[in-house]
Amino acid sequence: MSSAAAEEAVAAASAVIPSNTTPDAEPNKLEDASSTVQGSTATEPQQPQAAPKMSKNAFKRLRRLQEWEDGREHRKIRRREKRVATKARRREERAMLLAHGADPAVLFAKKTPAQLVPVSLILDCGFEEYMTDKERVSLSNQVTRCYSDNRNFKYKSHFWISGWGGKLKERFETAMESQHSHWTGVGFEQGDFLAAALRARRAMATSEAGEMVGSLRRSRDGGGIMWEKDETEPFPLPDPLPKLNEEYKDVVYLTSESPYTLERLEPHTSYIIGGLVDKNREKGLCYRRAVERGIRTAKLPIGQYLVMQSRQILATNHVVEIMVRWLECEDWGEAFLQVIPKRKGGKLIEGMGIEAEGKSGNNADGGGSNSDSEANEEDDVPGQTGDDGEAHKHEMNNKE
Question: d(Cα 71, Cα 59) in Å, to the nearest integer?
């Protein structure tokens, strides 16, 4: 006990001394009281410091999270019931169509499996420290969408996820119930995007590299991309750019800050897409990462085909879908209109590409670098937004 506390204790002891005590006796009693207080202090164990009090808002968040966790099993049962009801409804609809003379061969036609092509798409998920828990949830659901889009179009690329580990992997193994363990045609690389690019290169050099489809064949026969630098740099760096690393000349990092514009997809090339959801806080992060490693960079030619009313930064899954759509239609304008959300206000520049109906997007606004979207109902937490991620995952699983 400090001296001040001791003095206070002494004063308290003085206050209880009877009034009939003689003046001569008071000093002795005061000394006795003081020694008693100090003696008890010496033998008292030191009390631990009290834990800081939880704020009312923090307590409410904790309670909502606990309620959400407690209801997880109920939500799984409810989703299972919905799937059963949907299948039953589809069976009834098909039976009705057959009764009205529909052709069974058309009604029960199987979807043609996607054809593999010698191009690799790599999600660079090595940005965990730059994201909040909510943003990591969005990224995990975007990764799911990327996988589904890549395998459900006419052509599919070699697909890799680099930086596989940490909280992203933990989330897939826990909240998302290891759904990735059933994925096919995807590689998981704990190392960085260059380690994944080396593995992708070896895969594309085998007899199972994939079919050289028309769009890639025309890229190969056209003499290659010129890689001419744009007149203005979107994100100028203070220091001179290092030389390109010739060992990885078949690797291109897609980033909106690049001074180069992607013309076409080339065969036997790996395209890196930044798996970063950060609401555009870390500007130029993907671009600097690629430049420091001597990797070629490029941005999608959005500005050459569309007039946008908002930023040209897209969600990770949007970039993947644009790439696989281009492999099929070989038209950037059509691919952009099919993928970029309507709310971004993109309009096709006259004479550039094929006019098509745009689709309504989700809540993503960022990506390949910055987004926050596609949260599954099954795996989301209270207070986080999402749209059709759960339905999309069920569709993917049904097709499997």
Answer: 18
Please give the positions annotated as active site: 278
Alpha-carbon torsion 299, 304, 305, 309, what sign? positive
- For residue 257, give Cα distances in angstroms to 170, 228, 307: 31, 15, 18
Write down the H helix ranges in 163-213.
Answer: 166-173, 193-204
H or E stretch covering 115? strand 115-124
Beta-strand pair 306-307/251-254: unpaired
Q: Return d(Cα 400, Cα 394) in angstroms, integer.
A: 10
Which residue is associated with the tokens 């199972």?
208
Please list the pLDDT of the chain residue by residue as tens digits (400 residues): 444 444 454 444 444 444 444 444 444 444 454 444 444 444 555 666 666 678 888 888 888 888 888 888 898 899 899 999 999 999 999 999 999 888 888 888 888 889 999 999 999 999 999 999 899 999 999 999 999 999 999 999 999 999 999 999 999 999 898 999 999 999 999 999 999 999 999 999 998 899 999 999 999 998 777 788 888 888 888 888 889 999 999 999 999 999 999 999 999 999 999 999 987 788 889 999 999 999 999 999 998 898 876 666 789 999 999 999 999 999 999 999 999 887 766 678 866 655 444 443 333 333 444 433 333 444 444 444 333 333 333 334 434 3
Establish how many alpha carbons lie within 13 A of residue 101's alpha carbon, considering only the half-sphere containing its beta carbon: 0
Is residue 119 within 8 Å of 153, Cβ to Cβ?
A: no
Do the beta carbons of residue 322 and residue 283 sit within 8 Å? no
